[in-house]
Write a structure and sequence with these properties.
By secondary structure, the chain is mainly α. The chain has helices at 9-37, 46-64, 70-73, 80-96.
């Protein structure tokens, strides 16, 4: 019933733990390779602050590029002020007669 192809709970946990360790080692290795190719400046240094400022500026410029119509912001499609003025004119005209 259990068969040779089925792994036990202990084997599965052991395999998962080994895979987790392997992934962790691989990520550390990739990080070290990236550090050799493009070293990061020391934290708190002038260059680190300038890079952070440049990244923030790039992010803000991306946000500014989005075009938004005024009608979309103010509830486009229906002009409430125009409708209010028309209603006032109609009520004034009815009151005069």
């Amino acid at each position: 019933m259990t068969g040779a192809s089925r792994e036990t709970e202990e084997e599965r946990e052991h395999r998962r733990a080994k895979e987790k360790i392997d992934r962790k080692v691989e990520r550390r290795h990739e990080r070290e390779e990236n550090e050799e190719l493009a070293p990061r400046p020391d934290p708190g240094s002038f260059q680190a602050r300038m890079e952070k400022r440049a990244q923030k500026g790039h992010y803000c410029r991306e946000k500014e590029e989005v075009e938004v119509k005024v009608g979309d912001l103010m509830g486009g499609g229906y002009d409430a002020d125009k409708a209010r003025l028309m209603k006032q004119e109609v009520s004034l005209a009815a009151w005069r007669f």
